[in-house]
Structures are given as structure tokens and as C-alpha cells.
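#structure-requests
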Amino acid sequence: MAVRGKRTSTGRHEAGCKVCGHRQREQIETEWCAWANTSRLAQEYKLSRNSIYRHVAALNLRERRGKNLRAALERIIEQADAVTVNAGAVVAAVQAYAKINSAGQWIDRTEQVSLNDLFTRMSSNELEAYAREGNLPDWFTSMVGGTPIDSQENKANGQVERKQRETD
């Protein structure tokens, strides 16, 4: 029996491993790395869970499985219409899926905008209008996004304009 933390030689492992000797070894490894349930695999291929876990450890398949988180999330997402789940669980799975790249790495996509760079791009007329009236050019707000105050003002202005058109 291998001591925890020590690696067994591949040749020694293969000589006594029931998974390595199984005629469907490749299929078992592929399914396990795609997050198939280990108990189901053991039952389906007439193996013990322990033999699968020993095989996984000897061949360092956990790393390969870990890089395949998208497969696990795909399984959850695919079952959304077949099982009772709440919307939050499905949305969370979709969000997580979108953040994992093809190499299995979690990527938090963030966007940073330098306000200094944007102010540097403004023409002298745009800078004067901002200093006098507090108005930023349309291209500036589209880069940064509108603030809630801007949105409220725009909504209020739109309502005033509609009322004026209705009375005209």
C-alpha cells in the first residue's frame, strides 16, 4: 500500500491496477475527468471506488478533472429543466461557466477606465463646457457609464419633453 503523499511508480501501479487492466480504461478515465459520479462508474464498470481513486491518484487525474470544471457546470446547466432548482442556482452556474476559460482557469473579467486618460482626450471646447456647465461629452459617458443621477435626470428630462409634446 502506498504511503499518503508518496507516488507509486507507474509500472508498479499498472501491474496491479484493475482500472489500468480494464478493457474500457480510456472511457473510465474520460468519464471521471468529465465529472462523472465515481460510485456510478464503479458500479457500471464493475470496479471498486477505491480502485478508481487509487488509479486517479497514481496518474494524477485530479488535475485534469480540475481543469474540466466547465464539464461539471455544463451538467448542472443541462439539468436545469429536468430537476427542481431555483433560478439563483442556474444563474450562478451560468455565471461561473462564463468565467472559466477552455484551460479550466477561473478568469475574473474586469475593465478599468482611466478618468485621467479620458479627460486628456477631451478637446478644449469640451473641457470648457464641462467647467462651465458640468456637461461631459456623450463619448465620455459611454466609456464610463452614466451615474444614477444622470439616469434620473435623463428620465426626468424625457418626461418633461413628453409632456411638452403632448401639450403642443
